[in-house]
Specification:
- The strands form 3 sheets. Strands 5, 6, 7, 8, 9, 10 and 11 form a 7-stranded antiparallel beta sheet that branches.
- By secondary structure, the protein is α+β, with helices and mostly antiparallel strands.
- The chain is 47% helix and 15% strand.
- Helix 3 (126-143) runs antiparallel to helix 5 (184-198) and helix 4 (173-179) crosses helix 5.
C-alpha cells in the first residue's frame, strides 16, 4: 500500500469543453425592422445633406441677388450719366433746344460785357445803349476768329448703336470766348448773350436764322419800337446802318429784305427767315412773310 504521492508524476486534467453559446434565431421581422432602421437612417443622412446643400445654395442665391442688385444700380447710374453726356454732345449738332445756348448770366459773358462797356450806367440813355451795343459787335468781329466747323459726333441712344458725324455744331458762349474762334452761329449766340447781359434781360435780343435748301446763317436781331428792327451779323460784317454808318433801326420788312439781299450771293434768292430764338423763346417759320407777320404782332411790355 502506497502511503505517499509521487509529485513528479504528471497529473492528467481532463479538458473542459467551452460552454455552448446559443445564438438566437433571427426572425424575419427582425430583419425587416433592421432594414427599415437602416433605410430611415440613410434617409435622414440624405435629408441632412440635402438641407445643407439647399442652405448653401440659398446663401449663394442671396449673394448673387445682392450682386445683381448692385450691378443693376450701377447700370442705372451709368445709363443716366451716359444719357446726360449724350444730351450735352448731341444738342450741339441737333439743336432741339436752341434757347439753352443763350447764356447771358454765365460768368465769362458777364466779365467780358463789363470789360467792354462797364455796364449800362443809365438805362434811360438810348444813345449809350446803341454805342455800347456797337462796341460789343465790334469786339466780336475783332476778337473772335471765324472758323468753319469740323466733323462732330452724335451719340446713339444705345451704346451698341452707331455714332453719326455732322459738319455743323454750336458752341456755348463761354466756349467761344475761351477758344477765341467760332462760325456764324457761335458769334451770333455769343453776341446775343452779351447784349442780353448788358440790358439785364430787360429788352428783347434774339438770334435770327436764315435758311435755304442746304445752307443756313445766323445773326442777331433787336426788335425796336413799333415794328422796327436792328440786325447785327458779326460773321457777315453787316449791321443795320444809316447813310453815315451809324447803328440804327429800320422797318422790319425793309431791313429783313436788306439783310437777305446782303446774303443773296451766298444763300441764293430762295433763302428765308427760318427761326428766331433766345433764352425766353424758340420760334420757327416756313417763310419770310410768316416771320414778318409774327413780328408785327409782338409787343414788348
Amino acid at each position: 500500500m502506497k502511503s505517499s504521492v509521487d509529485y513528479d508524476e504528471e497529473v492528467q486534467i481532463p479538458a473542459i469543453p467551452p460552454p455552448e453559446i446559443k445564438r438566437p434565431r433571427l426572425h424575419k421581422w427582425h430583419v425587416i425592422a433592421v432594414v427599415l432602421v437602416l433605410v430611415i437612417v440613410a434617409q435622414g443622412v440624405l435629408h441632412l445633406n440635402s438641407s445643407l446643400e439647399y442652405n448653401l445654395l440659398r446663401l449663394k442665391h442671396n449673394s448673387l441677388t445682392h450682386e445683381y442688385d448692385a450691378l443693376e444700380t450701377q447700370n442705372v447710374l451709368f445709363q443716366s450719366e451716359y444719357d446726360q453726356l449724350r444730351h450735352r454732345i448731341n444738342q450741339r449738332s441737333q439743336h432741339n433746344n436752341a434757347s439753352n445756348f443763350i447764356t447771358p448770366y454765365n460768368s465769362s459773358v458777364e466779365q467780358i460785357v463789363t470789360e467792354i462797356t462797364g455796364g449800362w450806367s443809365d438805362p434811360s440813355n438810348w444813345d449809350e445803349f446803341w454805342e455800347d451795343v456797337k462796341a460789343m459787335y465790334n469786339w466780336v468781329i475783332n476778337q473772335i476768329e471765324y472758323r468753319y466747323d469740323g466733323l462732330f459726333p452724335t451719340l446713339p441712344t444705345e451704346l451698341s448703336g452707331n455714332t453719326e458725324y455732322h459738319d455743323e455744331m454750336w458752341q456755348f458762349p463761354n466756349e467761344t470766348l475761351s477758344l477765341g474762334k467760332g462760325d456764324c452761329e457761335d458769334m451770333a449766340i455769343l453776341l446775343c448773350s452779351m447784349i442780353l447781359r448788358f440790358t439785364e434781360g430787360e429788352h428783347w435780343t434774339e438770334c435770327i436764322t436764315l435758311a435755304n435748301s442746304n445752307k443756313g446763317h445766323m445773326g442777331v436781331q433787336i426788335p425796336v419800337g413799333e415794328n422796327e428792327l436792328t440786325i447785327l451779323d458779326p460773321a457777315g460784317h453787316y449791321f443795320t446802318s444809316d447813310d453815315t454808318g451809324n447803328l440804327v433801326s429800320k422797318n422790319v420788312s425793309v431791313e429783313i429784305n436788306n439783310w437777305l439781299e446782303h446774303w443773296k450771293s451766298e444763300l441764293g434768292r430762295d433763302a428765308y427767315v427760318s427761326g428766331v430764338f433766345a433764352n425766353y423763346l424758340d420760334e420757327t417759320f416756313s417763310s419770310t412773310s410768316e416771320y414778318i407777320l409774327w413780328m408785327s404782332t409782338r409787343r414788348e411790355d
